[in-house]
Structures are given as structure tokens and as C-alpha cells.
Amino acid sequence: MGRLFLVSLEGKIYSCKHCQAHLALVDDIVSRSFHCRHGKAYLFNKVVNVTAGIKEDRMMMTGLHTVSDIFCVGCGAIVGWKYEAAHEKAQKYKEGKIVLERFKLTGPDGSRYWVTHDAHMGGSDADDA
């Protein structure tokens, strides 16, 4: 196995809660109105230190999308998903963007998001982006 090189970000960042690998800048958030099984999720323009899994079609709250799971390269944890293709015209803005699940991140201030009793448990996607 080779040596792992991670990209370090400067500024207000979100990191993997397991290994603290930098994942994204606060300035790259497109929407905070996304939801996943564990509660809140954020849509980002770009992220670092991740790798994408296989593409698959998933029926989400906003329709059918082709997505791939996103894994932290530091520890291998699934931290979200990437929109590869949207099958509905109104959802095309998501293509190429990444959703990170807030539950799996450490915030810019070092805080962690804890799942509460009101977390949405039914699916993963946004309604209000």
C-alpha cells in the first residue's frame, strides 16, 4: 500500500468525523436544505479527499437520479453521494455536485451534528434546494 497524500484546506472547513480528513469549505456550500437518513445534509460544488463508488440509479424524494456513494480517502467511511445525472429537467442543477451528510462531518468550529428524534428516516435527497 502506498503513502496517503491528503489535500489540506484553509479557512472554515468540514472534516470527516472519523479521521479528520478535510472534505470541503463552507464557501462551497450550494444548499443546506438537503436531508438524508441521519438528518441534515449539505450540497457542495466541490469536495476533496474523497473517492466515488459505482454509479447506480436511485429513486429519491425528488425523482430518479444516477448517483455514486462518496467515500473518505482517509478512513474509507461513506460521507455522502455525488449526483452523476438527474433524470428530471428541474433537477439538472444537481449534476456533478456532492452531498455530504452532516452526521458524518465535524463542523468548522469542531462541532459534531448529532441525530435527533426528528431526523428524517425515509430517504436521501432534498426538496428545498
From TrEMBL:
InterPro entries: Yippee, Yippee/Mis18/Cereblon, Yippee_fam
UniProt keyword annotations, A-Z: Metal-binding, Zinc
Domain Yippee: 12-109
Origin: domain of life: Eukaryota
Keyword Zinc listed: yes
Single GO term (MF): metal ion binding
A Pfam family it matches: Yippee-Mis18
Family the entry assigns: Belongs to the yippee family.
PANTHER family: PROTEIN YIPPEE-LIKE CG15309-RELATED
Protein name: Protein yippee-like
Organism field: Musa balbisiana
Species lineage: Eukaryota, Viridiplantae, Streptophyta, Embryophyta, Tracheophyta
